[in-house]
């Protein structure tokens, strides 16, 4: 019996080490890309003045925070360093970080609802509204996961009724509540955009391009949000209900890898779908053709003017 338990513990340790070795480069690359993207949006005035980019910065910042936490945990595991943080604090940081990412998408959905549906209200177009949406997302994530700091974590490894309650509680606040908020806000916004597009098309007026851009932005963020939920739901449910021993090792490795890949995918998708940023980066790689063309035009003008 002890031999069987030793084999199981050895397999668990080796699989945990393999998961860490897979996750470390993915998390590191995610952090580098997210920080570089944030700095680019902050340094360039044209990007900084775009209000939507502040929500992008918020998503990248929350992704950086949760990636940094898991990177530190994985490095400690690989180097066999014991953590100085209590188990309560580790659970809190983990689920608070995941909640920060999900509620950052809620902030985007609520802001787009207010700015699109209630476009005639000046307050909803202001920077104050953006700050309120972002701050509310952070506060919700912290407050709703706060009970982790004041309860016995061993409760998740028992079979009591309290175990089921708190397990379902954290699944609801981390996954299902953000899903409901994002779905409700974006559905209302998309329905409004569709009705406005039909009305504008019937009147033959210009402005359909803005409506299409709003719709594309919402669909992109919804897709990003769904991918994140799909990637993090399995490992969270397995951990909260203490079912790791019932999951095959290969499947557990797959779930853990997909979870961190969704963070990387989220940052990459934000960069790729931002057309001004994509154009700017393309100009840097190609060699800024616009500047070259402008210089050639100026030389031609000077040549024509010179004989006079």
Describe it for me?
The chain crosses the membrane at residues 12-40, 52-72, 92-115, 127-148, 168-193, 221-241, 253-272. It is found in: Membrane. GO terms for molecular function: G protein-coupled receptor activity. The protein is an all-alpha fold. The chain has a single domain (13-280), classed as Rhopdopsin 7-helix transmembrane proteins (Up-down Bundle). The protein has 10 helices and no strands. It has helices at 2-43, 45-48, 51-78, 87-117, 127-145, 161-203, 208-240, 249-272, 275-286, 289-305. Helix 1 (2-43) runs antiparallel to helix 3, helix 3 (51-78) packs antiparallel against helix 4 (87-117) and helix 4 (87-117) packs antiparallel against helix 5 (127-145). The protein is globular, with a radius of gyration of 24 Å. The protein starts with a helix and ends with a helix. Mean pLDDT is 80; it is low at 290-308.
Overview in brief:
The protein has 308 residues and is mainly alpha-helical. The protein contains ten helices and no strands.
Task: List how many beta strands DSSP finds.
Answer: 0
Q: Structural class per helix/strand content? A: mainly alpha
Q: How much strand?
A: under 5%
Query: What profile does the largest beta sheet have?
Result: none
The CATH architecture is Up-down Bundle
Helix content percent band: over 70%
CATH superfamily name? Answer: Rhodopsin 7-helix transmembrane proteins
What's the CATH class, please? Answer: Mainly Alpha
Q: Please, how many domains?
A: 1
- End-to-end Cα distance, whole Å, is 101 Å
The backbone outline, from C-alpha atoms, is globular
Stretches with pLDDT under 50, minimum 5 residues: 290-308
Q: What kind of oligomer do you see?
A: single chain
CATH fold topology: Rhopdopsin 7-helix transmembrane proteins
Please trace the helix and strand order, writing H or E for each element.
Answer: HHHHHHHHHH
How many helical elements? Answer: 10
Give me the Rg, rounded.
Answer: 24 Å
């Amino acid at each position: 019996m002890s031999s069987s338990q030793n084999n199981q513990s050895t397999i668990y340790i080796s699989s945990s080490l393999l998961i860490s070795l897979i996750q470390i480069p993915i998390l590191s690359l995610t952090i580098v890309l997210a920080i570089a993207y944030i700095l680019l949006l902050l340094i360039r005035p044209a990007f900084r003045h775009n209000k939507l980019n502040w929500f992008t910065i918020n998503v990248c910042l929350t992704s950086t925070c949760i990636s940094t936490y898991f990177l530190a945990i994985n490095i400690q595991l690989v180097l066999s360093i014991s953590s100085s943080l209590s188990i309560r604090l580790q659970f809190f940081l983990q689920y608070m970080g995941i909640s920060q990412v999900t509620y950052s998408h809620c902030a985007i959905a609520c802001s787009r609802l207010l700015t699109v549906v209630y476009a005639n209200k000046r307050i909803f177009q202001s920077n104050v509204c953006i700050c309120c949406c972002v701050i509310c997302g952070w506060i919700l994530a912290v407050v709703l996961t706060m009970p982790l700091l004041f309860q016995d974590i061993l409760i998740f490894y028992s079979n009591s009724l309290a175990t089921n309650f708190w397990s379902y509680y954290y699944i609801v606040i981390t996954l299902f509540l953000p899903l409901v908020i994002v779905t409700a806000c974006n559905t209302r916004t998309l329905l409004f955009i569709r009705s406005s597009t039909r009305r504008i098309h019937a009147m033959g007026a210009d402005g359909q391009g803005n409506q299409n851009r709003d719709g594309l932005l919402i669909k992109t963020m919804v897709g990003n949000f769904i991918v994140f939920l799909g990637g993090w739901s399995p490992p969270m449910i397995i951990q909260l209900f203490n079912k790791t021993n019932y999951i095959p090792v290969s499947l557990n490795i797959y779930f853990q890898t997909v979870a961190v890949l969704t963070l990387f995918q989220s940052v990459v998708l934000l960069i790729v779908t931002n057309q001004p940023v994509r154009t700017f980066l393309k100009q840097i790689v190609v060699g800024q053709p616009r500047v070259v063309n402008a210089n050639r035009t100026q030389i031609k003008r000077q040549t024509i003017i010179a004989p006079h």
